[in-house]
Amino acid sequence: MPIVDYKRYCQMLDKAKKEGYAYPAINITTMDTINGAIEGFAEAKSDGIIQVSTGGGQHASGNLKDMVLGAISLAEHAHRVAERYDINIALHTDHCQPGKVDSFLKPLIAETTRRRAAVLNNLFNSHMLDASELPLKQNMALSVDLLKLCAENEIILEVEAGVVGGEEDGVSHEGAPASKLYTTPEDMVAVYEALSQVKGARYMFAATFGNVHGVYKPGNVKLKPSILKDGQAAVVAKYGQKAHFDLVFHGGSGSSVEEIRETITYGVIKMNIDTDTQYAFTRPVVDFMLKNYDEVLKVEGEVGNKKKYDPRAWLKEARNGMAKRVVQGCNDLLSTGKTMGRG
What we know:
TIM Barrel; 3-stranded mixed beta sheet; 11 strands; globular
């Protein structure tokens, strides 16, 4: 099985919820970042999620700047590589705003429909609609429409209510009012009431609790994980345990391990990791270039060293650096050693 199917993905999420851990969801942009993420999961003996944003897809298509083409190309590479490992990998798309639904999400869902007609696995296992810029009622109306389309194709939809502060992938919420950074219990009840209308559909929910995209020193991000606890309690009190959300944690850079693990106890089963793996990929390249300055460059009429300026030399270092950060993510989220293996 190259990438998990719907049934296996649901088993992954259920197992994490039951056993008290979460999956790192690693943003990727190139074949090397895909390989680094999967190698990290394999080293940790953890199942995991890799994900493509609209900007990541655009980057992967080069000067064409075609986010759908790039996302499909990255996903196809992941399908082929993951097949060779004894762990389970799910494919996800990250933060799609309402204005890009018709130009990104729907074409990717259509590609999955085409693949299913050819008796192939889904291209992506889950997609994220980030309609947090809209009033909640409009957000949920769009979410319900997309959830119906996803359910028809055995795709899980992730939605968001409330705003994750900071900037990510060119979308900025710098200066967002504090009231928008915290999803209320009433909001969480409204989200459940809207999404539960779609019978048989599965979804994940990114509730906000002070989280901020970007990189910060520990202690600078003022999280309130109790927001998640209170919201889950409100939903369960009104609709029973079946209403307990599968939650997603965005903007975790700078959060303490204690805060991260506290969110798991409130139902977080997926945590996005992007900024930290970007740095982990780039840092070894800087080190390599500084240490091998006179070999990667043709200095003072010399010819340099082809073995050093061959991109494969420094990209290997980058990939290894990223893999190590993925292992750390698995350790932080307690998924290390808990792969389901091949079923």
